[in-house]
Automatic annotation (TrEMBL):
One of its GO terms (molecular function) is protein phosphatase regulator activity. Keywords: Repeat. This is PP4R1 phosphatase. It comes from the Eukaryota. The keyword Ribosomal protein does not apply. GO terms for cellular component: cytoplasm. SUPFAM superfamilies: ARM repeat. InterPro entries: ARM-like (IPR011989), ARM-type_fold (IPR016024), PP2A_Regulatory_Subunit_A (IPR051023).
Amino acid sequence: NMDSALHYIHDSDLSTNSSFSPEEERKSKVQDVVPQALLDQYLSMTDPSRAQTVDTEIAKHCAYSLPGVALTLGRQNWHCLKDTYETLASDMQWKVRRTLAFSIHELAVILGDQLTAGDLVPVFNGFLKDLDEVRIGVLKHLHDFLKLLHLDKRREYLYQLQEFLVTDNSRNWRFRAELAEQLILLLDLYSARDIYDYLRPIAFSLCADKVSSVRWISYKLVSEMVKKLYMASTSTFVVDLMSELVEKFCRCRKWSGRQTFVFICQVKCLFVHLFG
């Protein structure tokens, strides 16, 4: 079972052995976990000539299997797969990059925080600027990946969350809906100050989305945000947020804005905090 195996790896004491010297990184791709010929055969799947003679999607198959191979070899043998992973991450076929984007959070659990910060974060940053077909892979598991990073590194992505509001196709509303879902999960990873400064503007923007499905998820996001700020030690953030809700939506000249305020209150009985 992949999930249980990943959980075991994450909780084991292997996390203390996740750093390698440059000399070890340059070692030949030799290990003693599986037959070396089998590993060599797998690594050769990134050879462009094989795509022409064997299977045009062989690189995609290689990318799909990589987390399983990494789990089998263990993080101590990551040097065997690192070059292959970077080759796949820069593959010209977006389907190959998309496959890696959907599994990068699983690979991060296998490799541990140090290897993730050194080898996966640069790839992750590249995927954030890729096509929407690739970006959706990291977006769907944004919380799963960011929670594995140290707080200082995690905060760096607060400045980039706004970029998920922009897509190649403005009609791709599912992208914005997924962003709202992920922001609900991200509330647990950031401080009240970060939530108010960075997540609040995005949430308000999503509440005014043209697509109702996006707005409904955003109402839940705002209500959870109020709850999070209400429970924080600093009360000024929740007071300011609720004041902004009243000003922006409750007193809005358009009926749709006033309706938004009612829906937000309905989700989590927000009126108890506002008027109770």
